[in-house]
Amino acid sequence: MRKARFDLKQVVCRNSSCLGYSSNIARSGYWITYRQGGTGDVRAARVMGRIAETDRDGEDCSGWVIAMKLNADLRSTFIVWINPEWITDCYETPPADLLAWIAGDAWVKNKCDIVRLVAMAEHGTTSNTYIGNRDNPDQAYNARPEYMAQFVL
């Protein structure tokens, strides 16, 4: 890895969406998605900070984001330097509730569980914002059997 000086200053990401909870500012701790090389595959990472200065052994990456990137198999992470132009979304917090749910032990045990997850997804509950509300007895897929029945032949 190249030598650099790092800081915690925010980075403006001009191509980041400002829809919903996304912003165009990346700070330490933010959850970001970006296109590798600006046009490649979409990746997810958590911002560590900003590259303030680099050695002279390659491209000048001053002003870039240094982050911990999730590998595609979600079983390991790597350090990456990301050009702010490549960043497509910036969220203040990672989707911890959603990741805990999808990686948790309470998962599909029978075919009714499959139907419930389909109904949850169709209802819009499978996002980080709403996953904590999934067991609310007033949710349509918990309260009305006919709601779940619409997804079964």
What would you note in describing this structure?
- With 153 residues, this protein is α+β, with helices and mostly antiparallel strands.
- It is built from four helices and eight strands, in the order E-E-E-E-E-E-E-E-H-H-H-H.
- The strands form two sheets. Strands 1, 4, 5, 6, 7 and 8 form a six-stranded antiparallel β-sheet that branches. It has a two-stranded antiparallel sheet with strand order 2-3.
What's the structural domain tally?
2
- Residues in helix, %: 10-25%
> Which whole number gives the mean pLDDT?
93
Shape: elongated
Main beta-sheet annotation: 6 strands, antiparallel
The low-pLDDT segments are none
Rg over CA atoms, rounded to whole Å, is: 20 Å
Please work out how many helical segments DSSP would assign: 4
Q: Span from first to last CA?
A: 55 Å
Strand content: 25-35%
By helix and strand content, what is the structural category?
alpha+beta
Run of helices and strands = EEEEEEEEHHHH
E-strand count? 8
